[in-house]
Amino acid sequence: MFQTDLLKGRTILITGGGTGLGRSMALRFADLGANLFLVARREEPLKETADAIRVKGARAAYASADIRDFAAVENAIAAAEKEFGGVDTLVNNAAGNFIARTEKLSPNAFNAVVGIVLQGTFHCTLALARKWIAAKQPGNVLNIVTTYAAANCGSGFVVPSACAKAGVLAMTRSLAVEWARYRIRLNAIAPGPFPTEGAWSRLMPARELEERAKNHHPMKRFGRHDELANLAAYLLSSQAEYVNGECVVIDGGLWLCGAGEFNDFADLPDAMWATIEQSRTR
Ligand code: COA
Fold first, then answer.
1. 278 CB less than 6 Å from ligand 1?
2. CA-based, 20 to 30 A from 180: which of 37, 209, 239, 282?
3. Among 39, 108, 121, 262, which is best to mutate for testing ligand 1, by the most ligand atoms less than 8 A from CB?
4. Using one digit for the tens of pLDDT, what is the confidence trace for 55-84?
5. Which residue puts its alpha carbon closest to atom 24 of ligand 1?
6. Is residue 195 in a domain?
7. Is residue 211's pLDDT more than 70?
8. CA of 190 to the centre of ligand 1 (A)
């Protein structure tokens, strides 16, 4: 689909790049010639993904950091600069989410998700954009949001995520205008259901829920990682130079079936909620 040098010469920092969709995007960008710098909390998956990228003949390095901590973000970027001389592209992919009845959440649960998704995205975007603006060099940012942010409908049962992702979308569109004069381009992707260990353990913690979601889907299937990674590669590439402030939905048409991806959890019986709460992953 793409020329193999589509992203040659680019250095891409991906948050949450050791696992899930972040890992899949990193591997795809490596195929297309990019250098990758991966940032996440756990070192083991970061190392494993960096090794997998190197096996492909591309360059990769990583730093473990909690993006809720601005100083940790700045340190990670300094490590990326040391390794590659600079970073020109940012993918804000790291996220936190879980299915829960909102009245059962603690304030800290809300803070944990908003801290990772909204503040973490702002921290990474701010730290890199300051450097790009000072150096008068262009920059490129891709934010991974959700369909319930893109459709402006929110969603029950994932309220911290809905609030945070709506904020990220507002940030994407606001900065796309404010920083266009610095040649910094910001776009978003709103994925529907793409199976990953992280999302599935938190959002589909029981087999019945997965079956229910698949049956409810107009295409009767979930997304494939390569489908999302190819869209991300296009949006980051120079072929999309005039796409700015856009949010592209990739969900097989699911959001058109009804607002709020998880709103139909309203008819879930208490017994199922008990199963979800018991299977809770920390
Ligand atoms: N339901 C309700 N509350 C939950 C919860 C759940 N499933 N999981 C965590 N919490 C609460 C905790 O009880 C805690 O609140 P408390 O201190 O008042 O008890 C708060 O959230 C923070 O939890 P903790 O595990 O200490 O936070 P963390 O910063 O280590 O983890 C999360 C952040 C909770 C978002 C965790 O799920 C995570 O690390 N997620 C990253 C990966 C991910 O979510 N991927 C899927 C993306 S779709």
1. no
2. 37
3. 108
4. 999 999 999 999 999 999 999 999 999 999
5. 282
6. yes
7. yes
8. 22
- Which CATH number goes with the domain that contains 153? 3.40.50.720
Note the pLDDT of residue 33. Answer: 98
Residue 205: predicted pLDDT: 87
How big is the chain by its Cα radius of gyration, in Å?
18
Nearest atom, ligand 1, residue 96 CA? 44
Q: Is 68 a pocket residue for ligand 1 (Cβ < 6 Å)?
A: no
Give the residue numbers marked as catalytic.
148
How many domains is the chain built from? 1
CA–CA distance from 223 to each of 191, 194, 234 (Å)?
Answer: 8, 5, 17
Ligand 1 centroid vs 164 CA: distance in angstroms? 14
Domain assignment present for residue 4? The answer is no
Residue 26 lies in a domain: yes
Q: Is the pLDDT of residue 268 over 80?
A: yes
Residues 151-171: pLDDT tens digits? 999 999 999 999 999 999 999
DSSP assignment of 70-119 equals HHHHHHHHHHHHHHHS---EEEE---------GGG--HHHHHHHHIIIII
Domain for residue 119, yes or no? yes
Q: How far is the CA of 281 from the centre of ligand 1 (A)?
A: 8
| Across 182-204, average pLDDT | 96
Domain of residue 146 covers 11-280
CA of 48 to the centre of ligand 1 (A): 24
- Token pair 């979930």 in the structure block, residue: 222
Confidence (pTM)? 0.96
Beta carbon of 101 within 6 Å of any ligand 1 atom: no
| Among protein residues, the one whose CA lies closest to atom 32 of ligand 1 | 96
CA gap 145, 166 in Å, rounded: 8
97 lines ligand 1 (CB under 6 A): yes
